[in-house]
Design a protein that fits this description.
The protein is of the alpha+beta class. The chain has helices at about 5-15, 35-40, 45, 50-55, 60-70, 115-165, 170-195, 205-225, 245-260, 300-305, 320-330, and strands at about 20-25, 30, 75-85, 90-100, 105-115, 200-205, 225-230, 240-245, 265-275, 285-295, 335-340, 345-355. Bound molecules: adenosine-5'-triphosphate (ATP) and magnesium ion.
Amino acid sequence: MTLPAGYYERLIASLPDAVVAVDRTGQIILWNPAAEALFDRSATRALGRPVGELLGPGSQIVRDIRGVLASGESRLLADGELERRDGRTLPISLVASPLLSHDGAVTGVVAIVRDLSRLKQLEDEVRRGERLSALGGMAVGIAHELRNPLGAIRGAAQLLRREAGPGSPWEQHVEVMFREIDRVNRIMEQLLDLARPIPLNIVPVNLAQLLDRILLLHEEIGREQSVQIVRHYDPSLPPVPGDEDRLAQVFLNLVKNGLEAMPGGGALTIATRLPLTSPFETTQRALVEVQVRDEGEGIAPELLDRVFDPFVTTKTGGLGLGLAIAHRIIEEHQGAITVESHPGKGTAFSCFLPFKR
Ligand SMILES: Nc1ncnc2c1ncn2[C@@H]1O[C@H](COP(=O)(O)OP(=O)(O)OP(=O)(O)O)[C@@H](O)[C@H]1O
Ligand SMILES: [Mg+2]
């Protein structure tokens, strides 16, 4: 069978991995579209130039290509890093092999570079889910243990209230006891929320309406803090199957965090859209994205990994449960939640929720 003309060119052009080839002198002779995207340089700019000049002589890829040119042996790098022009570092894998002539001489090198960031993100997601369920399980154990003694204390306080009677000098103290007992109870309810199965009451949810309801509750606080609330709703968004109350809890926590991050004012943007890229690598599902973005202090890089863990908080009086609960609820909806933050600039949380086309 003969292949149609240009078949191999098209094949290489449609590969998701970056394919780069150089001749014996290190000049670039092949640069596919995935390479254009990964290295952020067009083929027009790349072709014919020395690879060391284009990508920097010290870069991992250039070193490996040189190594293959010198030795004639393939190289494989399973966990490399690529410093992008925008300063981001991407995890990559790299395979570099010699291009051989008929008589076995090395005429060049072909390198295949794969962007592993999506894969890594997915692995992090899975690990985070496992860690959360372990922590959640422990929290629920503790909450169960505390329930009975707390019930007993509440009973005793009730007796005290009755004995002391209205107008007694103890009345205020007893009221403090009630208030604090009820506070502990609420915390425990939240804890239990974290680990027990959540029975979802799934209905078609109009996200714009739901978000508006939550934002209405925060308009006053926003005004006091000179926070400008900006809505960017995609009007073409379909209703999303979900539990309204639970989803409200998620967005409420995100909006609250956003406001708390901007004591000095700024913009809080709530956007809905059909996302261009999905956080799910393996399945091409139809998703909607709800993003809550602030211009607050941002999250320190060393904390970013743990913000969804329960009891991680930097706030006095914070419990560190808001995001853990949000994560749990989004997961129950078969969705995903991601965070991106730039210290000093702001933070964006994105919730991805599946719907059927
Ligand atoms: N929008 C944000 N901007 C900056 N930091 C944030 C933001 N959202 C969350 N964080 C950080 O993540 C931590 C955990 O957030 P989370 O909502 O889980 O708990 P919390 O707000 O501290 O307490 P609460 O249980 O009352 O929600 C916060 O203490 C804060 O340090
Ligand atoms: Mg919070």
